[in-house]
Specification:
Blueprint lengths: L1 H30 L5 H24 L10 H23 L1 H4 L11 H29 L9 H28 L3 H15 L11 H7 L3 H13 L9 H26 L1
Helix pairs in contact: 1-5, 2-3, 2-5, 3-5, 3-6, 3-7, 3-9, 5-6, 6-9, 6-10, 9-10
Length: 263
């Protein structure tokens, strides 16, 4: 009987936690823009608009694609994984700041707020990707990768890296709020150096080997290998995954020993 009672207690605790997490996710989706579910559509479409503004600039200026026949597909295949990483990492960073009053309730912990934002951003990232593919199809560009597994793996790695860096940012923000502006500047530099507008493997070998320490660059190459199997780039998949997991682990340790202590 005691085992059954203990099982019921654990089940009740799990259900209670899931209800809290669900409520945090709904609040996050409703309050980001305008206090309605339509506001969440803006969250999804914002990086999509960002992507096509960049793609439009390159196409309008007739910047040639280094590989393939479609300028739009080439630049989108670089911009989308880069922006997914940047948006996820930035929004996870802002989770605690935006929901600080909720942590005063005993049922809500800082980790819960961060986890709810992570789940919302995973869904947002894949919804944004679907919208981008739909728009490319509408303008006559075939968005289907030659190797779908390779491309999806790259997009998933972009989300994982964004989550990892985002959790680290949560820790940094707890004692250095000005980092929010600093991270914006960091993202600009990251965008320029990650190979969105060019093919890094065409650079001199010495330069390329240095740039490959940037995991975002390798994620873009990972995605592009799904579209251009003959790209010639070599991605260190283990390095990218371990970098993302190490970032996530470090971020969770910061949340446990730094953020909670300062909350």
């Amino acid at each position: 009987m005691s085992g059954t009672a203990s099982s019921l207690v654990r089940r009740g605790a799990a259900e209670s936690y899931l209800r809290v997490l669900h409520a945090l996710m709904l609040r996050d989706m409703r309050t980001r823009f305008g206090g309605s579910h339509w506001g969440y559509a803006v969250v999804v479409l914002w990086p999509v608009v960002h992507t096509f503004v960049l793609v439009g600039i390159y196409v309008f200026r007739k910047v040639p694609a280094p590989i393939g026949d479609s300028r739009a597909l080439f630049f989108a295949s670089g911009a989308v994984p880069c922006l997914i990483f940047q948006y996820v990492s930035r929004e996870v960073m802002k989770a605690v700041l935006a929901n600080r009053p909720l942590t005063y309730y005993p049922q809500v912990k800082v980790f819960d707020v961060v986890l709810a934002r992570i789940i919302v951003e995973i869904v947002t990232g894949f919804l944004g990707l679907l919208v981008v593919c739909g728009i490319l199809t509408a303008i006559g560009v075939d968005p289907r990768p030659a190797d779908a597994v390779m491309a999806i793996g790259g997009y998933s790695a972009a989300i994982l890296l964004g989550i990892g860096i985002g959790t680290i940012n949560v820790g940094i923000m707890s004692f250095f709020p000005a980092w929010m502006m600093g991270y914006v500047l960091f993202n600009i530099i990251m965008y320029i150096l990650s190979g969105v507008m060019f093919l890094p493997n065409y650079l001199p070998k010495e330069v390329y080997e240095i740039l490959k320490w940037n995991p975002a660059l390798q994620i873009i190459e990972w995605v592009r290998l799904g579209y251009y199997p003959n790209l010639g780039a070599k991605v260190d998949y283990l390095y990218v995954i371990l970098f993302a997991l190490f970032s996530l682990t470090l971020g969770l340790l910061l949340e446990r020993f730094v953020v909670r202590q300062r909350s």
